[in-house]
């Protein structure tokens, strides 16, 4: 028997190479994501300045500073709308082009197989249609949506850390030290929800295959009175993932609650230690 042809393992670099014709959109989307990531740290810095403005020595100085910060808030609003529009448009354009390209290649490859390949149960018309629909969309999510979020988050975290270390380095170090706990809780919750989503996708593929086969052979189903049996098979295909989702939803809720509680506890630590530094005269109230 002939040896199976070895294929290179799928890689993220290969997906990016498939999206290389849209590199200009990727560059524009990445720059917009980096700029939008800076909005939240600048907003937090502006909030601190606004609070400190209320403690100005004269009424005229307070008015001037508040007017300046109000203008900054308005500018941040306008920038957020523009940057979000540019970011999501460019990454969505990349994702749609990649989806169309992958679906075309998948369909071209499927149509090149011999007729016996389609006789296997896993290669039925329903399963193939479901695969064309879901797998290409998953790749779009991986390349377009994930890159957008990754660039934006990296930019926000980096700029926030730099601003924090410049303004109040002692307080920033304390806050950076407690962040891994919250990140761990959020990551655990994400893993659990991802597992639930995977099971739902698997159940959807099975149920989609059953539904497509039933519609395609509706005359046979009707003539043999098998409508009830088809509905039973459709429901059974989703029963096991439904039970598992109920169990894991409790774990996801606990993980989410723990992450939120750690977030509020870190804020409490932030204000307590910040108040201590203000009392010692090392930083101002606006720096907190």
UniProtKB/TrEMBL annotation:
One of its GO terms (molecular function) is ABC-type transporter activity. InterPro entries: ABC1_TM_dom (IPR011527), ABC1_TM_sf (IPR036640). Keywords: Glycoprotein, Membrane, Repeat, Transmembrane, Transmembrane helix, Transport. The keyword Transmembrane helix applies. Residues 27-288 form the ABC transmembrane type-1 domain. Signal peptide: none annotated. This is p-glycoprotein.
